[in-house]
């Protein structure tokens, strides 16, 4: 998918391969989006150029305006061992957030109403997010009853790390580091089918 300077992005279709820049059009190419499959099981993808530099800055500013706070407790982990600052946005926080929610829902063939509110997370030097799983044990029925079970996770990098910053999938011994504006999407649920997998 090619985004042009004078064109509203159309997120109805996605390509699993990079799209070459047009040599005919005089319009300026802003960025090109494509999906790269990293692994089949679990299904891990990199969404290249999902957001522009300005869009990344927009989300960072929203998090700062909301107030970045240290996590203290998690309903799943108890005393939260995660070391970072986080701000949670509202659903449909503004038009940009709503469009991003719709974009990810369209990409994963799900409904934006089934997603979680975006969390803007900031890591300082030596901060980390420890090993965990993104699902709720069925025994925790009180959480499942509130729609807390996850079928897919998307991590959007809003800033490139000078060093480190990788996402490590321990069960398959795989580290992934992406650039600002890229995202990592992973799922092991048959419910979540990416648009690129339908081609």
UniProtKB/TrEMBL annotation:
Q: Which cofactor does it need?
A: L-ascorbate
Q: Does the keyword Iron apply?
A: yes
InterPro entries the record matches: P4HA-like, Pro_4_hyd_alph
Q: SMART domains of this UniProt entry?
A: P4Hc
Q: Which residues form the Prolyl 4-hydroxylase alpha subunit domain?
A: 42-199
Give the species. Answer: Guillardia theta (strain CCMP2712)
Q: From the UniProt entry, list the residue stretches annotated as the region Disordered.
A: 1-21
Q: Which UniProt keywords apply?
A: Dioxygenase, Iron, Metal-binding, Oxidoreductase
Compositional bias per record (Acidic residues), positions renumbered to this chain: 1-13
Q: Which Gene3D superfamilies match?
A: q2cbj1_9rhob like domain (2.60.120.620)
The name under which this protein is listed is: Prolyl 4-hydroxylase alpha subunit domain-containing protein
Give GO cellular component annotations, separated by semicolons: endoplasmic reticulum
Select a single GO molecular function from the record's annotations and give it: L-ascorbic acid binding
């Amino acid at each position: 998918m090619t985004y042009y300077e004078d064109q509203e992005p159309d997120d109805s279709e996605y390509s699993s391969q990079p799209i070459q820049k047009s040599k005919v059009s005089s319009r300026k190419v802003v960025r090109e989006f494509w999906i790269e499959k990293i692994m089949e099981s679990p299904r891990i993808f990199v969404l290249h150029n999902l957001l522009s530099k300005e869009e990344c800055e927009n989300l960072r500013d929203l998090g700062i305006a909301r107030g970045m706070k240290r996590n203290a407790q998690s309903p799943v982990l108890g005393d939260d061992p995660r070391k970072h600052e986080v701000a949670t946005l509202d659903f449909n926080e503004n038009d940009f957030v709503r469009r991003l929610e719709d974009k990810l829902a369209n990409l994963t063939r799900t409904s934006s109403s089934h997603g979680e509110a975006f969390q803007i997370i900031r890591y300082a030097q030596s901060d980390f997010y420890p090993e965990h799983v993104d699902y709720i044990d069925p025994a925790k029925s009180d959480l499942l009853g509130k729609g807390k079970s996850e079928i897919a996770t998307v991590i959007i990098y809003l800033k490139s790390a000078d060093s480190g910053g990788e996402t490590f999938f321990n069960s398959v011994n795989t580290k992934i580091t992406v650039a600002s504006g890229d995202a990592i999407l992973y799922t092991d649920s048959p419910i979540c089918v990416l648009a690129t997998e339908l081609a």
